[in-house]
Amino acid sequence: MDTAYLIETIIKVVVVLLIFSALAGIGTYFERKVLAFMQRRLGPMNVGPYGLLQVAADGIKLFTKEDIIPTNVVARIFKIAPVITAATAFMAAAAIPFLPQFTLFGYTVHPIVADINIGILYILGIMGVGLYGPLLGGMASANKFSLLSAARGAAVFISYEVITGLSILAPIMMVGSLSLIDFNEYQAGGIGDWIIWSQPVAFILFWIAAFAETGRTPFHLIANDHEIIDGFGTEYSGMRWGLFFIGEYANMFFISFVIPLLFLGGYGDGSLLGALGLLAKMAFFFFFFLWTRAAWPDVRPDQLMWLCWKVLMPIAVINVVITGLVMMF
Amino acid sequence: MFEAIAFYLFAFLTISMFYITVTTSQALYALTALAAGMIFISAFFFILGADFLGAIQIVVYSGAVMALYAFGMMFFDTTRDVKEKSGNKYIVSGLSILAAILVVVIFAAPMVSTNITANYPIVEGIGNTQEVGMVLFTKYLIPFEVAAVMLLVAMIAGIVLAGKKMDLSLTLMSGEEIQHAMEEQNKKVLV
């Protein structure tokens, strides 16, 4: 543990934090634009060229707004809940290799903060902890709608976690490792080696679970839009509400990195083309989140639980069994 | 040095979290502190190089405590303090400190007399996950399978207990059907 390693890690942490909190802001702009074009509107247009500075305007508004702690809430939990969402999203990023290693001024850089050999388990576990944010925020707020939203959050949590775990189990059996870098090396041979061809079922299941994990539209039932209010976020204002948002968007970006790394070859052989390929795949999956939001309605909590426990879980288990049999014989 | 700093930091955090869990009268504080303590424990696994167990600790306990939250939601108004009937505080704290010391002594005693050695030391080059699997499926196969059977029994019992009225779904029934079912129930109560 020498000083150079320490400094390098701190720089990497700061870079990841800065890039992805900025991207989370720009992500809201993308979302509003994409939704607007799909619904034949223009979206934000007034601030800056094509409304590009809308992000800055929103940021200024969130940062300067008064931070209200209503009476009757459990103040400490209420204050810490948004921090949990944002912090866990960025903690999960520690084990994601964002790019292949490259050399900068004669110094080899590994664009991963910590290459732990249980990367994927760690990422999913920490992302799961992120759901404590909505849960605690809803339970600490002294109103019924927030509490209901927290209850839905708990329902989502117990539904999707089993699916994510079981669906990636089959690819893990094939690769024989939990590290995302090993996953990437397993698929480094080109398109033919991608795990999606041998594990299409696991890919679809994981993708569906990713929507539940990030709480995006078909499963956007934690903050139920039909109630017009914002579910667990009803009583929040200013930057605390903004932290929930940053957490959600950062999570979307990170899971959009994880899906290609697991199933679609990641950054391939580590060339510049491969790195650009990973970014392109990430952009596609991020876009798909927005696309789904424009195209699909939300499901009810009981429908989500029905889907997860009665449909997806049996499929995932069968997939694991078949993979095991194929690998054995 | 980093290990020592990390160990003492997380030891302090874990103990203070569990202290909050048992002393507070606010259900939400207790549950949150419990969840935080469970997650901080995983740090010790990471410090010891048992990455797999550390990650499993986070995954399992974050889910388990989430279920406790659901119960808390059903049974209390979690934004209010719970009125507890507490007995003599000195006896309670005295006994718990005594019990804690006893546990530490029980586990520390073998270390004082002899240097303990690991039965299954970490092998360089083999991943942590593989090692856990190797020990689990050779030396500890029977306890592992027994645990699996016990979990299966618990799951079946849970399904039987919860599944009594599973064929009825209030969401899918029309208003008249619900009305009818409620009248039936009232008749039963009257009889």
Can you tell me about this structure?
The complex is a heterodimer of chains A (about 325) and B (about 190). In chain A, about 65% of the residues lie in helices and about 0% in strands. Chain A has 12 helices and 2 strands. In chain A, strands 1-2 form a two-stranded antiparallel ribbon. In chain A, β1 and β2 form a beta hairpin. In chain A, α3 runs antiparallel to α5 and α9 packs antiparallel against α10. Chain B is extended, with a radius of gyration of 24 Å. With about 190 residues, chain B is mainly alpha-helical. Chain B is built from 7 helices and no strands. The interface between A and B is medium-sized, with 37 and 28 residues.
CATH topology heading of the largest domain in chain B? Four Helix Bundle (Hemerythrin (Met), subunit A)
Q: What about the largest sheet of chain A? A: 2 strands, antiparallel
Q: Name the structural class of chain B.
A: mainly alpha
What's the count of strands of chain B? 0
Total tally of structural domains of chain A: 1
Largest sheet of chain B: none
Summarize the structure.
The complex is a heterodimer of chains A (329) and B (191). Chain A contains 12 helices and 2 strands.
Descriptive labels:
heterodimer, A: 329 residues, mainly alpha, two-stranded antiparallel ribbon, 12 helices, 2 strands, globular, B: 191 residues, Four Helix Bundle (Hemerythrin (Met), subunit A), 3 domains, 7 helices, extended
